[in-house]
Amino acid sequence: MNKIRDYYSTVVNNTLIDNNIYLIEMFLPEFDGKAEPGQFMMIKIDETYDPFLRRPYSILECKKERLKILVKIVGKGSEMIAQKKKKDRLYVLGPLGVGFSVDKNSHSVLVAGGMGIAPLWFLARGLMKGKKKFSIVYGERTASLLGKEMDKTFGERVFFVTDDGSRGLKSTASDALPSFLDNLPYRESTIYACGPHGMLKEVINFGMGRNIPVYVSLEERMACGIGVCLGCSVKRKGKYGFLTVCRDGPVFKGDEVEI
Amino acid sequence: MKIDLSTKIGKLKFKNPVLTASGTFGYGLLINEIFDISRLGGIITKSITIRSRPGNPAPRIVEAACGMLNSIGLENKGIENFLDEVLPKIKSFNTNVIASIAGETVDEYGRLAEKLDRNVSAIEVNISCPNVKKGGMSFGQDLSSTKKVVKKVRRKTSLPVIVKLTPNITRIEDIAKASEESGADAVSIVNTYEGFSIDIYRRNSKLGGFSGGLSGPAIKPLALFAVWKVAKNIDVPVIGCGGIMNFSDAIEFFMAGASLIEVGSATFSDPNASLRILKGVKHFLEEENIKSIKEIVGIVDEN
Predict the structure, then answer these.
(1) What whole-number distance in Å separates Cα of residue B116 and Cα of residue A20?
(2) Is B252 part of a structural domain of the chain?
(3) Considering Cα of B95, then B96, then B102, then B108, what sign does the dihedral take?
């Protein structure tokens, strides 16, 4: 595992890419750029105590001394991060957690709901670089600019699903998944999913029913992000006790956690 | 100038007065990957119980203005796991390892102390956890229960005994005095303040465990005053704790009467907080031409 460090970073770019969604690029001095898709960073918003805690963000992309994250305004903390301008400073702790481990012998199917695309975007870029075949099922409420961005980047690998039918199939990602898989010309698939709780639950159940391996990336409220506060626990499936989303995850095997 | 940061609890020596609060530092292993924790005066472990405890349902953390509420519920794998799996890994830290213990009964506190005797540097008796149904804070809110627990632990170990007190009581100084009279070598002040937060749309608590404990800068003036009240009433050292975020907060606690301090939830917003605070304290003493930390302990009093 890479050494965890707190980088005193500088905002290089902050672009509004959709209603309430910002793409922030940062300069992280001395960051070697090594991270697994699915890993995250804990971002300290400023030097004041309100908000008190850092905010976890999935790594969207990273390379030497550079990091990109996707920020959707959902509350005070994300709003403050979204308002950061070029040259503003942020403390960025990471990379943290356990990311996706890709099964090279099966076809990767990435299932994303809305902002759940962030860690899967990173995974998809890696698969693309490694010239691996993969598919993305991307579900959202309505056709967004983020979806358009995905179309530009991943082209026909993306199967679009919207609640209102404004782009692609009128359905949800989890409802569309079974027939999508049936139409794939591959014998073995592995599912990597991130998105709303309900979607993940359905995807896990589907995968277990069909004996298809499922990996999910979970979200939970976190205080420390490094495994010491035990605040972000998730119940183990069929076993006693909890796992921590920040240290044992955020990526888990679908049959490992009770969500 | 050589600064003397050393201090003592009973016979136990501390190279400096900066400790980490129970429940905010795990067992030190994870943070030791970020900095060398042997530089600290000591670490206090997550509270250990007789049996393994899964902890409380999620959400366990809710942010508050300048602080946070937690309802973890003493999640830990129990004393046997600590002795077999954890202790061998943390024994080699070149600093004091203080084991925090939490029992559901007086007898359990005694059994925990007995099992830890000679295995760690000291014991911190947690009679102040607000997030468990049995034991926890209920001991620390009652004079006679406090005495029973502390006496029991005292009889079962020759290690220094520290008692961590709850501020959720009218007169914390009375509980501190009772702890001292029952054989405590120090008291830690304070554990979290009971509180909660409501989701107005769901019409329910935001915490899975309903209520929780408030920590962070939000409680600092309250904790600081509790330390001041207690320190002038007892002779054993006071360990100050509650919202310490930087060196000046720490210095305030020393001046109010704390001989040592615990850095708690500051570690969550900055994993290097305890080390940063230690360096800041040392720098302050140098700048102010103070040769020993002991010179400023309890220096502030009413005119």
Answers:
(1) 54
(2) yes
(3) positive
Structural domain contains residue B300: no
User: Residue B252 contacts by C-beta under 8 Å, 6 or more apart in sequence?
Assistant: B224
Under the banding of pLDDT at 50, 70 and 90, the label for residue A2 is: low
Residue-number span of the structural domain to which B103 is assigned? 7-295
ipTM: 0.92
Averaged confidence pLDDT in chain A: 93
Domain boundaries, chain A: 5-96, 107-217, 219-259
Pick the CATH number of A107-217 from 2.60.120.10, 3.40.50.300, 3.40.50.80, 2.40.10.120: 3.40.50.80
Ranges in chain B, pLDDT < 70: none
List the single residue in B59, B66, B75 with the smallest CB-CB distance to A49. Answer: B66
Please report where in the chains the tokens 């009889």 appear, as a residue.
B155
User: The CATH number of A219-259 is which of 2.30.30.240, 3.30.565.10, 2.10.240.10, 1.10.3720.10?
Assistant: 2.10.240.10
Give the residue on B whose Cα is nearest the Cα of A239: B54
| Across A44-50, average pLDDT | 92
Q: What is the pLDDT of residues B230-253, one digit of tens each?
A: 999 999 999 999 999 999 999 999
Catalytic site includes residue B129:
yes
Is residue B25 less than 8 Å (CB to CB) from chain A?
Answer: yes
Q: What does the pLDDT read at residue A19? A: 87
Alpha helices in chain B (DSSP H): 79-81, 87-90, 106-116, 137-140, 143-156, 172-181, 220-231, 247-256, 266-269, 273-287
Residue A15: is its pLDDT beyond 70? yes
Show the tokens assigned to B138.
Answer: 């209920």
Nearest-by-CA chain B residue for A54: B269
Q: How many CB atoms lie within 10 A of CB A139?
A: 28
Please state the φ and ψ torsions of residue A94, each to the nearest 5 degrees.
Answer: 160, -165
pLDDT at B174: 97
Chain A neighbours among B 200-259 (CB < 8 Å)? 216-218, 245
Report yes or no on B1 lying in a domain.
Answer: no
Query: For A217-254, how does the pLDDT look when each residue is reduced to its tens digit (9 = 90+)?
Result: 999 889 999 999 999 999 999 888 889 999 999 999 99
CATH architecture of A5-96: Beta Barrel (2.40)
CATH number for the domain that contains residue B21: 3.20.20.70
Number of folded domains that form chain B: 1
Nearest CA in chain A to B71: A231
Q: How far is B59 from chain A (nearest CA, A)?
A: 7
